[in-house]
Amino acid sequence: MRGLVPEHLRYHKEHEWVRVDDRRATLGISDFAQDALGDVVFVDLPKVDAEIAVDQEIGEVESTKATSSLYSPVSGTILEVNNALQDHPEYLNQDPYGKGWIAVIALAHPADVDELMTASQYEEFLSSQG
């Protein structure tokens, strides 16, 4: 296994995760993604109330190594964003599944989550990436 892959989350091919609570999905980047990026120095957060679609680019993460786009694994409306990341982008490195969450989305189609990888599928995906 590469990095931490919590069992209770679902994963997108672009290395975002979602945690679903009823019709709300909390979004972040995986431990693998933050490790690959290196030290995160800036996060361009999505806009609250924005309508988003699956695979839509919703922001960016800038690190000392690269800039990487954030993609939404689900469709819906952005309910809130983690404004703490503006002053503390390092939360993405330190706690990608906790303090480093990026946004909360009201799910337009809860079935979108069923299309995402489980933890074991994501681990297999990472292994296949070389």
Give me the secondary-structure topology.
Elements lengths: L9 E2 L4 E6 L2 E6 L1 H7 L2 E5 L6 E2 L4 E7 L3 E5 L4 E6 L2 H4 L3 H4 L8 E5 L11 H10 L2
Commentary on this structure:
The chain contains 4 helices and 9 strands, in the order βββαβββββααβα. It is an alpha+beta fold. It has a single domain, classed as RNA polymerase II/Efflux pump adaptor protein, barrel-sandwich hybrid domain (OB fold (Dihydrolipoamide Acetyltransferase, E2P), Beta Barrel). Strand 6 and strand 7 form a beta hairpin. The protein is globular and about 35 Å long. The two termini are 12 Å apart. The model has no long low-confidence stretch (mean pLDDT 95).
Key terms for this structure?
130 residues, alpha+beta, OB fold (Dihydrolipoamide Acetyltransferase, E2P), 4 helices, 34% strand
Mean pLDDT: 95
Global morphology = globular
Helix content: 10-25%
Compressed to H and E, one letter per element, the order equals: EEEHEEEEEHHEH
In DSSP terms (H or I, runs of 4 or more residues), the helix count works out at 4
Please count the beta strands (DSSP E, at least 2 residues each).
9
Kindly report the spatial arrangement of strands forming the biggest sheet.
Answer: 1-2-3-9-8-5
> What class, by secondary structure content?
alpha+beta
CATH superfamily: RNA polymerase II/Efflux pump adaptor protein, barrel-sandwich hybrid domain
| Shape-level CATH architecture | Beta Barrel
CATH class: Mainly Beta
How much of the sequence is in beta strands? 25-35%
Largest β sheet strand count, sense and barrel closure: 6 strands, antiparallel
Oligomer: single chain
- Sequence stretches where pLDDT stays below 50 over 5 or more residues: none
Number of domains: 1
